[in-house]
Amino acid sequence: MSKDCTIQDVFHRFYSSFESTHNISPAQRKAAYHIMNCKTGAFGVNVSVCEDCGCISVHYNSCRDRCCPMCQEFPKEKWVDARREEVLDAPYFHVVFTVPEELNPIIYSNQKFLYTALYHAASDTLSELAADNKYLGTDIGYICILHTWGSTMNFHPHIHAIVLGGGLDVKSHWKDKGKDFFLPIKMISKTFRGKYMAKLKQLWENDRLEFHGSAAPYKNYYTFKELLNTCYVKEWIPYCKKPFDGAESVIRYLGKYTHRIAISNYRIKDMTESTVTFSAKDYKNQGHWKEITLSGEEFIRRFLMHVPPKRFVRIRHYGLLASRNKKKKIALCRNILGCKKYISKLKDMDAPAIIRLLYNKDICKCSSCGGKIIPLPTEQHFIKPKPHTLC
């Protein structure tokens, strides 16, 4: 029995047996390789020496994979800090777009197409309804983030949207409804359902969909048609949380969702020769935490389900927050609202300075005597990464 273990430990113990009995995509294989070799020396080693006491420090490079639990904190802090300059002192809302679970097998078999359809349907829903004079009549801004997991690492694709609660009308005037969300949830539900199902039908009619595993029965025309009818009749349930309490809370909140992965190391409670135990929220019991035990191979299977397709962009900006708009339009909104500009703390800082600011740790000083450390010549002491031929 092993406690205080990590996801890397789980992969070291169970991945080889899992690999021999399951089909693994190149993206999943690459993620597994990165997780198992992160900070082990496989991606290079940097060696430094203290000028005063001669103490030698060895630093193993990380893999920087977006699915690795050991590599998310630093990119998250930098990303969230960069967003500080785009945040306004205005209402923000958190809207979650979900699809019926009956669609999950087809979505998993066609991840790139149907994940993209999720973004398009959510974006079109928000922008179209916000532009309607009946609701707000403005161009708004929002960030969409794809998550594909539930608390138990089950497959549950959904979009988290951080929505600016106001926007600019055709005359470039600011409009909002204060702390009241400007769109009725039922209208969001109907519009999102219609747009996503339209995109799904279009892909089906153009023969762009594949049907593997549990999605195989939907190769049949009548079975797929029955699925569409079921989803059209079913009520889709988006969710809107209360507005954020000020711009600073928006900045802090973003970090909770942007660089999250299916499960973090702190949730791993125990590992035996054949099983892994982890904590998960039980939403049927008021969100209380409970422990779940899975076989090691099942744990690996669930984890790898959430590796996104190659080069798939998980964080997308729209409307006022889109790259082509935000420089001019956010500045205009800030002037109209008379709110202060939040300045990036980490902009133009190098990695040692960022670490010193965020974690109060000076990596340029010797941990033994406090003297200055210098890197040893790379041609003598840098170990090159192993060639990667897994994908």
From TrEMBL:
InterPro entries: transpos_IS91 (IPR054832), Transposase_32 (IPR007069), Zn_Tnp (IPR026889). Coiled coil: none annotated. Residues 141-327 form the Transposase IS801/IS1294 domain. It comes from the Bacteria. PANTHER family: ISSOD25 TRANSPOSASE TNPA_ISSOD25 (PTHR37023:SF1), TRANSPOSASE (PTHR37023). Residues 10-99 form the Transposase zinc-binding domain. This is IS91 family transposase.
